[in-house]
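Run Crossover junction endodeoxyribonuclease RuvC through structure prediction, thanks.
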Amino acid sequence: MRVLGIDPGLTRCGVGIVDVTATRTATLVHVSVIQTPPDMPLAERLLIVSAGIEALIDEHSPHSVAVERVFAQHNVRTVMGTAQVSGIALLAAARRSLPVGLHTPSEVKAAITGYGQADKKQVGTMVAKVLRLESVPKPADAADALALAICHAWRVPLGSGSAAQGAQGVPGSGAATGLTAAQQAWRAAEQGTARRSAANRLAR
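Sure, done. The structure for Crossover junction endodeoxyribonuclease RuvC is below.
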């Protein structure tokens, strides 16, 4: 399953694409940030973001799109820009008949770290672990986009049409092992690191 995660923002829009297997193993496909200058007219900024998102969809052909759900903020200008970019992302997906998942920040944090109040550093660290990256993707918008994509893939039952069936019977799911998807991914990443370290010691 290939998922495009979008962390909507008018100045910086994080976009990340991951492939996730039936055992919940995630692999990085693409990550970047679409940026627009604050002094540019709004219509032109939205056009740049729209073109960037559509180009990624056409190039990488994701099976679904995950977008952060817009929530109220004290800064009305910021939330308006976020909502406008979210609309663009939804439109781009709808034009290509791609299913869309909307996830709140707390849902993403809980899926990735097991803790709904985790900070950005914890999320970024876990994203790097899950994707077996040498460093945390930067800026934070990029890591957040990947976290969205991973969260969506883990919440959607791969290879089945029912969320309930996926939670109960997908190999490697929490129901089968007693661990959440995040905990399983962390354990798999740690085991992979341990195996590589052992191989390096033997090679010396």
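The beta strands are 2-7, 12-20, 26-35, 64-68, 100-103.
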